[in-house]
Amino acid sequence: MAAAITGGFSLRSDSSCASLSSSSSFFFGRFLRRPPPSVSAASASSPPARIASAGYHITCRSSAHDASYTSSSHKREGLKDFIHISDFDKETIMKILQKASEVKALLKLGDRSFQPFKGKTMSMIFTKPSMRTRVSFEAGFSLLGGHAVYLGPDDIQMGKREETRDVARVLSRYNDIIMARVFAHQDILDLGRYASVPVVNGLTDYNHPCQIMADALTLIEHIGQLEGAKVVYVGDGNNIVHSWLLLASVVPLHFVCACPKGFEPDEKTVEKARNAGISKIDITDNPKEAVKGADVVYSDVWASMGQKDEAAFRMQKFQGFQVDEALMELAGPKAYFMHCLPAERGVEVTDGVVEAPNSIVFPQAENRMHAQNAIMLHLFGF
Q1: pTM
Q2: Is 200 helix (H, G, I), strand (E, B) or coil?
Q3: Pairing status of strand 9-13 against strand 56-60
Q4: C-alpha distances out from residue 70 to 186, 193, 198, 199, Å
Q5: Fewer beta carbons within 10 Å, N or C terminal of the chain?
Q6: Phi, psi (5° rounding) for residue 79?
Q7: 3-state secondary structure string, 143-176?
Q8: Aspartate/ornithine carbamoyltransferase Asp/Orn-binding domain spans which residues (predicted)?
C-alpha cells in the first residue's frame, strides 16, 4: 500500500505532531463535522481504511491546473487529463489508489457528508455504450456531491454532426470535467487537446485506464500489494492488455499476455513496457505455462464491441484459451480470477470459474466507481 497522501494537505494534532499510516484518512476533516462511526460497519470483503480520529485539523491548498494540451509521452506535475496510466509516475498512481481506498471506506460507512464535487458538473460522452462505465461514473460523481449529464451516441454524433474540437470547447464552458467512452483513440486525444477542463478516458479501442486502476485497487485489497504481482491475461491482446502494459511501465509487475498467434497486443506498447525496465513482460501463446504461479488470472471477451462480425472466426482461433477450472488449477490455489465484464460465460470463461470462491469479478466491478472517484479528485487537485 502506498504511503499516506500528503500532497496539497497538511495535518497537525492539537496535542502533538502525528502522522497518518498508509491506510489513514487524508482530507476528510475538511468536510466531516464529527468523527465517523466505527469502521467495523464497512464491507468485510474489502476492509476499509482507518479514519482519522478527532483532534486533527486538516487544511487544504488549492492547486491550479494547467489547461494546455500535454503529450502523453511527458510526465509532469499538474497534468490536466487522465488518458493513459503511463502519463503519471508511480508515486502519483499509488496516491490515487490510496485516495480510492479511503473514499471507498468512507462511503462504506454510509457517511455522505464528504461532498468535494458539490456544485460541479460532468458531461459523459458515450459513442460506445456501457452499463458499468455509465453507472459507476454517474453514481460516484453524485455520491460525492456532483451532477453528471449523459450524452449518448445520438446526442452529439461527435466527429459526424459536430467536430470533436468544437465539442470539447463547448462542453468545457458548461462543465467542470468531461468523461468520454469512445471508439477511436484520437477522439480522446482531441478532447484532451481542446478542452480547458479535465478529460477522463472512459475507454477507447486502444486502452482502458480506469478499468486497470480499478483492477489495481482490487489486487491490493485481495493480495495485499500491487508491486511484484504476477498478472496473467488470457485472451485477445486488446485495450485491457495495453493498459496493463502501460501500468507495468510505471509500477513493477510480472505481466503475462497469453494470446493466440496473430492476436498479440500492439508492438509499440509492448516495447514501451519492456524498455521502461521496471517490469517483467512476457507474451506467449501457451496459456497453460503462463498461468503457473499467477496471483491473478484475467480474461476478457474474445470479440469486443465493434468486432462482433469476427466472433465465429475468433471462436475458432481462440480454442484452448478458455479460462476453465483446469486452467485455474494450474495457476494454483492462491490465484484469483478477474474479468472486466461483461463476460460471455461458456466462451472465454466457464460459469464455474466466474462463480468460484476465488473469483473477484464483482469487487473488481465495484471498484470502478471508487477508482474513478479518486482519479477525478486528483484531477480537481484534492
Answers
A1: 0.81
A2: strand
A3: antiparallel
A4: 14, 7, 12, 12
A5: N
A6: -60, 130
A7: HCCCEEEEECHHHHCECCCECHHHHHHHHHHHCC
A8: 227-378
What distance lies between CA 195 and its chain's CA centroid? 22
Q: How many CA atoms lie within 13 A of 254 on its CB side?
A: 12
User: How far apart, in whole angstroms, are the C-alpha atoms of residue 93 and residue 378?
Assistant: 10
Question: Would residue 340 show up in a list of annotated catalytic residues for this protein?
Answer: yes
CA 125 to chain centroid, in Å, comes to 18
CA 141/CA 120 separation, integer angstroms: 9
**Grid cell listed for 183:** 471508439
Of 210, 257, 259, 340, the catalytic one is 340
Residues with Cβ within 8 Å of residue 263, at least 6 apart in sequence: 236, 237, 317, 318
Concatenating the DSSP letter of every residue in 166-215 gives HHHHHHHHH-SEEEEE-S-HHHHHHHHHH-SS-EEEEE-SS--HHHHHHH
Which of 278, 293, 324, 286 has its CA nearest to residue 231?
293
| Distance from chain centroid for Cα 30 | 26
Separation of alpha carbons 71 and 336, rounded Å: 36
C-alpha cell at 208: 482502458
Q: Cα 278–221–48 angle (5° rounding)?
A: 135
Cell 492547486 found at: 63
Q: Which three cell numbers stand for residue 287?
A: 496459456
Distance (Å) of CA 335 to CA 4, 98, 223, 236, 298: 28, 24, 9, 20, 10
Res 78: pLDDT: 58
131-159 burial code (b ≥16 CB/10 A, e <16): ebbbebbbebbebbbbebeebeeeebebb
List the Cα angle 37/42/48 in 5-degree steps: 95
Tens digits of residue pLDDT in 51-108: 333 332 323 333 333 333 233 433 444 579 999 999 999 999 999 999 999 999 999 9
Q: How far is CA 154 from CA 169, 215, 369, in A?
A: 19, 31, 25
pLDDT digits (tens, 9 = 90+) for 159-195: 888 999 999 999 999 999 999 999 999 999 999 999 9
b or e along 53-85 (b: 16 or more beta carbons within 10 Å of the residue's beta carbon)?
Answer: eeebebeeeeeeeeeeebeeeeeeeebbbbbbb
Q: 3-state class of 291 per DSSP?
A: coil
- Rounded distance between C-alpha atoms, residue 22 and residue 2, angstroms: 6
Query: What is the DSSP code (8-state) at residue 349?
Result: B
